[in-house]
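Example: Serine/threonine-protein phosphatase 2A 55 kDa regulatory subunit B.
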Amino acid sequence: MNVGGEGLLAPARSAADLSPLEWKFSQVFGERTAGEEVQEVDIISAIEFDRTGDHLATGDRGGRVVLFERTDTKDHGGHRRDLERMDYSISRHPEFRYKTEFQSHEPEFDYLKSLEIEEKINKIRWCQTANGALFLLSTNDKTIKFWKIQEKKVKKVCEMNVDASKSVENGAVGSLSASSKPSLANGVCKERPISSPSNDNLIPSGGLPSLHLPVTSHETSLMARCRRVYAHAHDYHINSISNNSDGETFISADDLRINLWNLEISNQSFNIVDVKPTNMEDLTEVITSAEFHPTHCNMLAYSSSRGSIRLIDLRQSALCDTHSKLFEEREVPGSRSFFTEIIASISDIKFAKNGRQVLSRDYMTLKLWDINMDSGPVATFQVHEYLRPKLCDLYENDSIFDKFECCLSGDGRRVATGSYSNQFRVFGCSEGSTEATTLEASKNPMRRQVQTPSRPSRSLGNLPRVLRRGADNSGADANGNSFDFTTKLLHLAWHPTENSLACAASNSLYMYYA
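Written out as structure tokens, the predicted fold is:
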């Protein structure tokens, strides 16, 4: 199977394109003060830009989804905005503001399995917009929900036409309720001429001050409504959801199965991948991540705990037991250890926007794969090589099982992923680039920048196109401080059309631009 696109690596660029980006702080939401204790429910567990980059969604361990919207593009004309999206060299200060939030999931209890189901949001995926409304999918360990967020006009009573307390003080109410003039049973006053029926409808020239009429106004407010709930389809924890390019279907993946859903049908799904063996003792690997191809609706990829990526074609069969392509790196003889399989487990995969490359993140490295070359990764980026001597300690405190996400820039020239001490790394993946920048999620992101090697080191193996870059064996930051393994930057997202990054550090959302 061959899919058109660019070359193995992004095309060669000019010297300006290959130079490292200078990242600047843009803004932060939910910044902690010194000594402030972070509540577990406030820790961000998912982050996602929409297709346009004008909206950003975050999910937290408390089951809430918070939406932010772009504000610095609203004053520009449409033509200028199109030009800005076409030219990445335009650098402007991105600004987002809080839009709304809603409770997506609540804690549940599975009585059949005596299992508590956390409300934590595992993944968020934006869907196509329609009629000015926003749509997104959110999932916890067991249940996926389809949300519609729309502005609605709500009629509210802002005031009354008269203050009731003043009316009572002025005796207006009493004068009407206790009239001294006798009235007939039909309400016509004896002193009024009966021959003039129009007098019955006369209103005093001063009006009726005690007649309270509400003065209403229409206010626009955002309403989040759950349109559908996709439940009871996974025996194991859901680790991935991904929208199809057809705009009608999506997949959900757990440790052993991948299901295909239609957005309009919540009570039925189709199992398209099942790796569960007849005897569970024969289980050798589990599914760790899955994602649809960005343009081909029949193709998807999923990764495993053994460091492999499988590309499958839905046209081949209803149950995709076999794969079209298998991507895995050959093991170097003599390098196997107790931790080899643990650190080889892929925690996240992302397709490039052009659909030609796949980016994967395992515990130690980022790998860039070309889907037309299954002999090995095109490039390998060392994220935190200094941790290799500390694997025993990381295994003891379970940090070795942390699942870091990865992302690519919209133009495919750079990739990024998180690390410890609230740090994240940005690598250039254009041919000839040596960019390997270390940044910290703070208001001064460049303060922990590590010097990058002048030339990329070539692999000693028989994979001629592989680049291995970014190794930092110091075991400490640029200031000589030891790394903090309790503060980890697991979630980050790259703006789809600009060099702008959103990073989740504990309960804080940091925004950067270059």
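Confidence is low (pLDDT under 50) at residues 2-12, 171-181, 450-467.
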